[in-house]
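Predict the assembly for these two chains.
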Amino acid sequence: MTSEMQIDSYLTALRTHLGPLTIAEREEIVREINAHVRDSAEEAGASVESVLARLGPAEELAAQYRDGQLISQASRSLSPLVLLRATLRLATKGVFGFVAFFLGLFGYTMGAGLVLTALLKPIFPANTGFWVNDYRGFGFISAGSTFPSPPPHAHDILGIWYTPLALTLGSLSLLFTTMAIRKSLRTSRRWQSRM
Amino acid sequence: MAKLRAQPTEGDQPDRWEAQLRKGALEMAALASVWQGRLYGLEIIRFLESHSRLVLGEGTIYPILNRLKAEGLLTSEWVEAEAGHPRKYYSLTETGRVRLRLMAEAWTSFSSGLSRLLEPVLQYPEDRELSAATMKLEEKEIPQ
């Protein structure tokens, strides 16, 4: 294989593994690595093989770019999907990410659930609420929407106040989860690059 | 677990620790390399090698530069060169300068404190230290 072909096949592999990045980012990286290989190979005693070997496998190089990119973009994002995806990526790297992912999932589910039921309350007032269920001497509490209607001995203690309260708590939960994930991604980035 | 940690024969541990330490300083080192003016990737690698004996996998530095740029600490521009292809030059942003300054201050005070702490360790004769460690280990291993 000629050195031109070696460079081409390395850059093609790099481009492929950089897949999730935008085309502009990808091409910029490939262009920079291309310049590096050519400059580096011209140094005394260097060859294209040795330069490519020092760079490491294209797949690993691309993975380092992807991790950095995913986490640094996500730490500025507001989208639950982007944020959860980034914590999921962290979760493959250690306990910290694992905990962040599950707390994130929990926070989003709770927040979304509260907001959803707050909106359902005006439509299905009998099925949505915060009940104290005094059943055979045991006190249960439950909240949310339930179909069919809740058991007759359940007592809805909030009434129309359910909507504003659930809306507030749900929004706070979503906001807090978003902030917590972003904070943890930013913290993780400090040690992430060192692995 | 405690026994495992006490074993002085675990050869690769200090190496791995040193590798972690070097990598940990890399972000700051990359920023410091462009303190005096813009450089392109390969120049940064060579600069770090000659000024700090930080020898690194060449694939390591580029993703770090990319991230530092995404964080707004570095900025980059493509400059045509007589080599026939343009090169991507990095320079510090104002935020980058401020951040590097803070990092340098924290690093210097931290490392000078640690150096004082480690002085007696380095002065202690190595063979005596090792045999003392081995004796302690043997004592621990006697079953209760």
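Chain A touches chain B at residues 28-29, 31-36, 38-40, 42, 51, 54-56, 60-61, 64-65, 67-69, 72-73, 189, 193-194 (CB under 8 Å). The CA atoms of residues 91 and 97 of chain A lie 4 Å apart.
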